[in-house]
Structures are given as C-alpha cells and as structure tokens.
User: What shape does this take?
Amino acid sequence: MSGLTFLAVHAHPDDEASGTGGLYRLLHEQGARTVLVTCTNGECGDAPDGAKPDQDHHDGDLVAAVRRVELDKAVAVLGISRLVRLGYRDSGMMGWPQNADPDCFWATPVEDGATALAAILMEERPQVIMTYNEIGFYGHPDHIQAHRITMRALELIDYEPTLYFNAIPASRMAVLRARWEEEDRIKREEELAQGIDRAPDVGPLDEDGNEIDMGTPDDEIGAAIDVSSVTDFKYDALAAHASQISPDSGWMAMTKDEFREAMGTEFFKRVTNPMGLEGVVTDIFAGYRDAGTSSN
Ligand SMILES: [Zn+2]
Assistant: This one.
C-alpha cells in the first residue's frame, strides 16, 4: 500500500506512544508511511532523579536531553518512518510559571508552528492526520497549541486531508473513571491509617478550575482501530519513556496480556471528511485504499 501516509501532531515525547502507539505500529506493519511531528522537547517532565519541574534543582535542558533519547527509542519500536521535532520549549500545565517563557510553545504565535507544520504537510501530503481536540484532550496548554497549529496549518495547504482527533468514548471513560476513583479511595484509606488525610484526587481542570470531561460522546466516534495484534509494541514504546512513565504506573504494572485487553482499541473522532465516510471505520485509511492513493 505504497503512497499512503499517516501523520500525527503530538505535543510531547511520549504522547505518540500513549495516543497512537498501536496505530503507528499497525500502519508500519501494513507498509504505510508514518510521520510523527512532536512539538516540544518535554522540558517540564520529571527529571531522571525524580525532581519535579517546580523544584529548584530541576534542569529542563537535562530532562529534554534524556527525553530525546527516549523518543528515538519509541520511534524505533513503533517503526515510525520519519520523526520531525518542532523543538519548542515545553509549557507545563495551565497556570505554571513556565508558560511565561516567551520561547515556550504556548507563548509562541500559532502562525509560527502552523507555518512549519504546513511545510511538512505539503512535503509529505499525508491522506490522514491526527491531533487533539480544542481542549487538547485534557487541557494541557501544549496539547491545545498542537490543536491550534494543526487547524491553522490545514488552512495553509492546498488539499484537504482526513483529520481525526484522538478520543475515548464517553461510555469507556465512565468505566475508567469509576476504576480510578475506586483505586484512589483505597489509597486514601491506606494513607488515613498512617495519619494522612487528603481530599480525593480529581481529574485535570480547565482554566476556571472546572474538571475537564475527557470523554467523547459515543456517537461522535468515527474510527475504532483494533490494535490488539501490536499492543506489545505500544507497551514497549511507553516503557521507552522510562523517565516519565514509572515501572509501577498503571500501564507498566499490567502484564502484556492485561495491557492488550485494556488497550486493544484506539478511538478517534473524525473532523474533516473529504472522502465522505459514514459511521465508524475500522481502517484509518478508509476511503483511500479503493480510491487509489492520490490526495491531489
Ligand atoms: Zn503531552
């Protein structure tokens, strides 16, 4: 299936693995060309010694150097054909002081990133593109900015690709949420036994302090891709980001069989639809295989 190209615009090193790791590997095995655009260097991640970005001895440049190597590893595991780093500084979460850095992605004019991305799109001419929705899936400024530069770049190019946002169906999100709440409740009970009394964890918040709904209504899902044959690779790609995803985190604590069970499908919402697709497709290149591979 030469001539088919998929491109995803991700905010940080590791987002390619969590959001699209299965899809990337699947497309690699199908012989498609795959391109990853990673917008930031990930300076605001945890340092290898565990230092958090708000701690004085946290060295963002060192973190970025470590994450650079980790991203290369993940890209190799997923068989990604081409990695493009836009090289912006990581912005941190909403309200963090890092966002005041004029070099950070969030503080950079959308036009800058959009122009750079448009040049890549014109060169690669991917039929299918993926990024996040307008709230960056979970409210992170760099994810919102990735959305914004992608939407603007689509106005700058001379053809219309099929655009998808990554998504978790609301019904599935409700199940996940119930599980997180139960895990947090058990953890708080254990902490209480040690004399620590804390409020329940909440999910990510928007600028007004309201909890962000990370679910997409089930009837808005436009693609459900069965990646169960390649979840081992997705697991290994996540593991490659060792400085960010600790071995006792939820994903890494799973066996590969459990991981396949939990992560065997990747969901997307269809945003542009030049091929006139209907319903939920199971192939991200639906509409392009029979129609030939030209996107002109
Ligand atoms: Zn991210």
In short: Residues 11-12, 15, 140, 143 surround zinc ion (CB under 6 Å). The chain has a mean pLDDT of 93. The longest strand covers residues 33-40. The chain has one domain: 5-172+214-270.
